[in-house]
Amino acid sequence: MRPRTVALFSLSGAPGVTLAATALAAVWPEERGAVLVEADASGGDIALWRRLPASPGLTDLAAALRHGASGGYDGGGPVGHAQALPGGLPVCPAPSSADRADGAVRLLAQNAGSLAADDGPVTVLDLGRLAPRSATAHLAAHADAALLVAQDDLAQLRRLQESAAHLFETLPGLRTVISGGDRSTAEVSDAVGMPVWGRLPADPKSAAFLRGEKNLRRPHKRPLFKTAASLARTLIRDAAQTRERAEAAT
What we know:
By secondary structure, the chain is of the alpha/beta class. The chain has helices spanning about 15-25, 45-50, 60-65, 100-110, 135-140, 155-170, 185-190, 205-210, 225-250, and strands at about 5-10, 35-40, 85, 90, 120-130, 145-150, 175-180, 200. The chain has one domain: P-loop containing nucleotide triphosphate hydrolases (Rossmann fold), CATH 3.40.50. It has an 8-stranded mixed β-sheet with strand order 3-4-2-5-1-6-7-8, sandwiched between helices. Strand 3 (about 85) and strand 4 form a beta hairpin.
């Protein structure tokens, strides 16, 4: 058992969900790698950052899944509707306008089970901001792992604290990731009254690199990418341990 889909989202503000999702997909350690799907109903950033054409991308993927295409390597899944970023990461960018992106995300949510296959790359979903009972919430609920990204500031942590009970009830496998700040995960956990699974460091150079504004000689040595790789390995290890416990119980 391995995670086939990993969803990242926020509740408010701009804690860097797209940057975190891109970094995680770029350093995914398995041989099959990962494909990034920008499923943000409010509109995407990647095409603007990287000056990518509108197609192929999220709209094409949503239409293909609607007609029954699978998530493997047959050209119907995310890889078949992706563009390659410099370095090779396949990405399905979302339309920049909310009206077009929202419709595509709704279609995607109706076919959430077809977003990935056992023999394909992991699908990393950038869901942007999550609202209750929305299409993005449906996608998060169907992901094998859901990562809530929150910035280490009072307003976002308060929103996280107020929403914790509902989130953990609807997303049993939810993991909380704090972005930026200098407090330890234990301190943040005490402040919000819920476990904090990981932290993404503030790394302006890596952020500029991911937005296409800066070149880096060895990006994998940067703090953001090193941390993202560590989180990916933990997700894979946790999935393996879950499988072992399930097999032992049978």
